[in-house]
Write a structure and sequence with these properties.
The chain is α/β, with parallel strands linked by helices and 199 residues long. It contains five helices and twelve strands. Helix 2 packs parallel to helix 4. Pfam families: 5-FTHF_cyc-lig.
Amino acid sequence: MNTDASKRALRRRHLTMRSRLTADDIETAGAALACRALELPELAGAATVAAYVSMGGEPGTHALREALRARGVRVLLPVLLEDDDLDWGEDEGPERLAPARRGLLEPEGPRLGPEAVTGADVVLLPGLAVDRRGMRLGRGGGSYDRVLARLAAAGADPALVVLLYDGELLDEVPEEAHDRPVHAAVTPSGLHRFTPRPR
């Protein structure tokens, strides 16, 4: 099986597992994730964090985003463009989120431009799994591959952190040439570090 087919099969498996979660499972995991994530020194010292609004069976991000905003952290949220690239807007709370394409919720405020992510101290990435080298399995749309390429092109070096459920840390994720490792993963039961961050 080639790499692309292996990724598709792994995505199907993890999406099926997530589809079996109840709303209570997702909310409970999201609360635990927020507690764990807030233990990360990178988040403790962050002025700006690029996050996302969880959807469907994804680990909930609401509690973490609210905790960051309560700390005075500027939280950026993605806005999906027609070509599947991402623009960004500021998180001004759940009452300022509007329905958008593909069932997403996006910030209502001004658009800050795709380059806004390069000013983040931490980028929280969605994913379906990550392996012990930090290679992330995304949903396959390529939006966050563009974000990671944009960060590299700008010479930006935020902490890259993927939010997952327990059981989504794997021995190996199929890897393609454009894939980039994340620095850490947060699950409801703990923090997992991969590539050391240069200082």
